[in-house]
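Translate structure to sequence.
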């Protein structure tokens, strides 16, 4: 029996989300340069290895596997995959452009035409099927040359390299892309700057100074990109993208309530405040003072940030976070970059991420109440072990249950008065996990025959969730 849900707004943007480094493969084809994702080893120890003091950003096939090098071969199979997205009825497809396909080292004077032509083909194929691209300009794939030779976003020069890159793609695709976002999960760098900022802190003493200086450079770069986008194509929409995990106090102890409040301010709102309001929030001044942070701000930087405010907020939502001021190791919970303590009211995924659909409604209400700008859920999904039956079917009812409740929560938020643009389920086709480099951590509506050891035919198969999501889109969220 189908359950019913209030109808979503007309024109709601249903679709799916991916990132270039997790699906494309072809890591040396088309004159593409190496990016930070290309040196990520596969396996559950990926992030520990990457953040270790001895990591040198080199590829070592004797010690590690590198699943991102082939990924799911979207580079060669994009037409087949886009046809499957169209079969589901996607209105939009969130993807990213690999910076190193356009500027292989990041600092070249001229862009790489082969890379530009590849995305022309992808966009044309999407538009042929009536699917609008939603493009993230920088999604965890910074040119390795800028990491190793410039020190990542700590270096002010990277702003000018990003400006050139953004200008090239905004001009090239102005007639093909209406929806843009600048930096993926920009606030995640508070916990792990290596992926989005291109460096690991040298030590705890310098950690905050380096990270917040890099944030400032990214804010300036984002402001430049937003202004360029609005000049090049006034009809386009360009947003920021944050990782949002509402923070619940473990109990009503005022110390824990205040701790949760401060954690939420810093992690969930700091970057969004700058992007949407165009200025540094009042609460950050005390934090800077207590951490001895002094930003180098050039003349005109604050004007660029003020003039480059975004049109909407894109967000990833996978889980909520429960926390308290003092916690033991036994109480800690896993999460998407951030963790807290275990919430006794919530179940968890196979990877320990707590499942909280109501938390999505809470998140949307909090964000819209604070900013009054349109919101766009551009990542949400369940990573799980999927098993193929003898008849070739993949019965992922657990994923359907997860997504159904989160879609229902979005409907409730819309009834609450939240202006919600759309929803792109993460990993709409199985892809390489960012955090672990595993294929076995599957999110997709489409199964890809690829294993953690690199074996597999890369054949695509529709899961049960594929047919469910098709009905959701057909009914504009009414049939769940």
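Result:
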């Amino acid at each position: 029996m189908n359950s019913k849900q209030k109808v979503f707004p007309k024109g709601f943007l249903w679709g799916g989300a991916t990132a270039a480094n997790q699906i494309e493969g072809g890591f040396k084809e088309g004159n593409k340069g190496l990016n930070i994702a290309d040196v990520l080893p596969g396996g559950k120890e990926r992030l520990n290895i990457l953040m270790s003091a001895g990591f040198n950003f080199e590829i070592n096939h004797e010690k590690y596997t590198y699943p991102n090098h082939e990924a799911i071969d979207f580079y060669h199979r994009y037409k087949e995959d886009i046809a499957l997205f169209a079969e589901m009825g996607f209105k939009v497809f969130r993807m990213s452009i690999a910076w190193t396909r356009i500027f292989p080292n990041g600092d070249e004077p001229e862009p790489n035409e082969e890379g530009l032509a590849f995305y022309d083909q992808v966009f044309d194929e999407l538009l042929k099927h009536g699917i609008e691209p939603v493009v993230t300009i920088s999604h965890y794939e910074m040119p390795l040359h800028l990491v190793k030779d410039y020190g990542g976003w700590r270096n002010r020069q990277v702003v000018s390299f990003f400006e050139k890159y953004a200008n090239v793609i905004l001009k090239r695709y102005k007639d093909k892309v209406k929806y843009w976002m600048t930096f993926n999960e920009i606030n995640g760098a508070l916990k792990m700057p290596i992926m989005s900022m291109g460096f690991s802190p040298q030590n705890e003493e310098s950690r905050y100074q380096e990270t917040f200086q890099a944030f400032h450079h990214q804010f300036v770069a984002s402001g430049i990109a937003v202004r360029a986008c609005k000049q090049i194509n006034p009809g386009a929409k360009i947003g920021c993208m944050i990782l949002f995990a509402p923070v619940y106090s473990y109990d009503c102890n005022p110390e824990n309530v205040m701790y949760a409040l401060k954690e939420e301010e810093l992690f969930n709102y700091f970057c969004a405040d700058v992007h949407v309001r165009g200025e540094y929030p009042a609460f950050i001044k005390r934090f800077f003072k207590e951490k001895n942070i002094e930003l180098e701000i050039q003349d005109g930087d604050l004007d660029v940030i003020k003039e480059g405010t975004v049109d909407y907020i894109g967000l990833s939502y996978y889980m909520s976070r429960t926390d308290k001021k003092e916690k033991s190791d036994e109480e800690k919970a896993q999460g998407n970059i951030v963790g807290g303590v275990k919430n006794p009211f919530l179940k968890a995924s196979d990877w320990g991420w707590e499942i909280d659909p109501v938390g999505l409604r809470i998140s949307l209400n909090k964000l819209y109440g604070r900013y009054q700008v349109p919101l766009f859920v551009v990542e949400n999904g369940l990573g799980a072990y999927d098993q193929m039956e003898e008849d070739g079917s993949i019965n992922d009812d657990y994923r359907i249950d997860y997504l159904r409740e989160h879609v229902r929560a979005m409907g409730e938020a819309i009834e609450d008065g939240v202006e919600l643009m759309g929803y792109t389920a993460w990993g709409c086709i199985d892809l390489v996990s960012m955090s672990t480099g595993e294929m076995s951590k599957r999110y997709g509506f489409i199964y890809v025959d690829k294993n953690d050891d690199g074996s597999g035919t890369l054949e695509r198969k529709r899961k049960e969730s594929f047919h469910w999501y098709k009905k959701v889109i057909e009914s504009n969220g009414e049939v769940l």
